[in-house]
Every structure is written in structure tokens, then in C-alpha cells.
Amino acid sequence: MRSGVERVVLGSDFPWYTPGATAAVVEELPGLSASEAAAIIGENAARLLRLG
User: Fold this and answer.
1) Residues 6+ apart with CB under 8 A from 9
2) CA distance linking residue 35 with residue 5, whole number of Å
3) Measured between alpha carbons, how far is 49 from 24 in angstroms, rounded to an integer?
4) What pLDDT sits at residue 1?
5) Cα dihedral angle (27, 30, 31, 35), rounded to 10 degrees?
6) What is the pTM of this model?
7) Would you put residue 10 in left (φ > 0), alpha (ψ -120 to 50) or beta?
8) Which pLDDT value is given to residue 23?
9) What does the pLDDT profile of the chain (52 residues) look like in tens digits?
């Protein structure tokens, strides 16, 4: 990923798709490892918001 996985977060305020379905799409993206998908799905947001 050109911009770096650590700079991408999953948004959940789009009214036509559920967050779980969107997360499943991210998990299936070619070229992303499981740890990169986990970062996009929630770990990056937790880091940015200093949640843990």
C-alpha cells in the first residue's frame, strides 16, 4: 500500500453497509496480511485515539 497501512482506518458511518461486512471485505483484500488488515479494521484507530 503506497500510503502505508498505519495511516488507514476503517470508517463505519456509511449507511448502506454494516461495519462487519466492510471489515470482511478488508480482510479479503489481496496483498494485505492478517496483521495489516487488523490494523486497518481497528488497531490504527485505537492507537490514534490512545485507547490501548
Assistant:
1) 40, 44, 45, 48
2) 10
3) 23
4) 58
5) 10
6) 0.85
7) beta
8) 95
9) 578 999 999 987 778 888 899 999 999 999 999 999 999 999 999 999 999 7
Phi-psi sector, 32: left (phi>0), alpha (psi -120 to 50), beta: beta
Residue written as cell 490501548? 52
What would the 3-class secondary structure string for the chain be? CCCCHHHCCCCCCCCCCCHHHHHHHHHCCCCCCHHHHHHHHHHHHHHHCCCC
Q: Whose grid coordinates read 500500500? A: 1
Measured between alpha carbons, how far is 51 from 47 in angstroms, rounded to an integer? Answer: 6
